Amino acid sequence: MRSLLLTLATVVVLAPPAGAQPTRFDAPADLFYLHPLVNYSLPLRWQAAWERHRMRHGGLQATIGSISTNDLATLVRVEATEAVGDHFRFLYRLDWTASPHLDGPERQNWLGIEVGNLATPWGRFGAEIVTHPTSDKADLDVVPGLVWTDASRRNYLRAGWRRDDFLYGEKNDLDATLEEEADGPTWAAHFERGRWSVSSEGTVLSPSERRFPDRSRSPDRAFLRRERSWSSHALRYRETGRIVELRVEHRDFEELDAPPPGVEPTPGHRQDSRWRHVRLAWEEDLSRHWRIRGQLHAMEYENDLGRITHDRDEFLGGVFVERSLGGGHWIDLGWMGTDHEWTTTPASDLYGPDRDAVAAKLSLGWTLAFDDRGWFRALISHEPDPQDFGGANVQAQVRF
Fold it and tell me: Could you report the per-residue pLDDT of 42-77, keeping only the tens digit for each?
């Protein structure tokens, strides 16, 4: 099973890269965030299991759903940690996050080793190094780091220093110069005690700056600056039949793609976006056959494109009622709603007229649970006003 999943993940990684991140709302604007944040989000018990077992067993986690006629919201993560002896582990990680609602997409696969596993009264300590394999040395990324775990590897802290394209200045074939290297901390942590647990992960990179003095090799680009960071932090309470979680997330993305003098800048050559998201979610078993899930969200988004600035504030929520059909099969009905407001200064066709409105959708889902080792879920949704198809989504998670 693990060999098959890793093969599939490698095929995914080697697929042709996605196009440039769009800045306009190609999706129905009212539901632009309702689709991925509420409708396509993974259930709490799935996320709790992922964060608890990622360092001990590893696994695969995926949710892929339609966000517009032409776009998908995609989250695929794979972690494999294979122990070879007492002090050595092979590591593989895939991080693929790409969706029109998130600026600064990520598609990285990492290979590496963990060494040490030194037992002390305060836990087990080790070191690791992972790298993003590539055939072009200019695109080589590396993350050296330290690892702490308890004996079960359910409590852990993984902290590294990420360096993106650190050989670009010496190895690129455009005669470009690397003036500032993108580097910074990256981490993943999980701590649990009794009914409470805390999780955190993220990456914060410094700005990368490149100059392209050779007009013959780079006729449309003279300077490129890019900076990005993201983080997700959760506080979770769990008892038999009930999970409650508060999650706080951020994502910042900045890019300046400047042309040489005399060349007209392309639309979207400059972008500076800030995204903030808070979610309160809960799940509760009402009986052996009935379960309810709910979530409330608050979100702020600001996107500065130089010529225009777009601001959006939104409150979202959803309730899902699940019924067991036996044999690990569950069916669920869901209602989701959004109360949103956005403004664009000055007015622009890119986002359409300013808006203050509410919208909703309904969903029907089916889940197949394999004990506590894995789940598969498929769903479709419907927009009641106006009557329209609301999108489809497939979710999967398995523990290795």
Answer: 999 999 999 999 999 999 999 999 887 788 899 999
Beta strands of 140-289 (E only): which ranges? 141-149, 156-164, 177-180, 182-193, 196-204, 208-211, 223-239, 242-258, 270-285
Has residue 52 been placed in a domain? Answer: yes
Q: What is the torsion angle, in degrees rounded to the nearest 10, for the CA atoms of residue 144, residue 150, residue 153 and residue 156? A: -50
- 142-192: per-residue pLDDT in tens? 999 999 999 999 999 999 999 999 999 999 999 999 999 999 999 999 999
Please check whether residue 252 lies inside any domain of the structure.
yes
**CA-CA distances (angstroms) from residue 220 to 7, 213, 260?**
38, 11, 6
- Predicted structure pTM score: 0.90
Domain of 214, in residue numbers? 2-15+25-399
Residue 133 · residue 103 · CB < 8 Å? no
Other C-beta atoms lying within 10 Å of the C-beta of residue 66: 19
Amino acid at the residue 90? F
Beta strand segments in the chain, E: 59-66, 72-83, 88-98, 106-120, 123-132, 141-149, 156-164, 177-180, 182-193, 196-204, 208-211, 223-239, 242-258, 270-285, 290-304, 309-326, 329-345, 355-370, 374-384, 387-399
Residue 163 neighbours by CB under 8 Å, 6+ apart? 141, 142, 143, 181, 182, 183
| CATH number for position 226 | 2.40.170
CA atoms of 281 and 62, how far apart (whole Å): 19
| Predicted confidence (pLDDT) per residue in 9-43, tens digit | 444 444 433 333 334 444 457 888 999 999 999 99
Percent of residues, the chain, with pLDDT higher than 70 = 93
Which of 287, 199, 201, 203 minimizes the C-alpha distance to 242? 287
How far is residue 283's CA from residue 48's CA, in Å, rounded to a whole number? 12
Judge whether 132 and 107 are in contact, CB under 8 Å: no
User: Assign residue 262 a region: left if phi > 0, alpha if psi is -120 to 50, beta otherwise?
Assistant: left
20 part of a folded domain: no
107/59 Cα distance (integer angstroms): 17
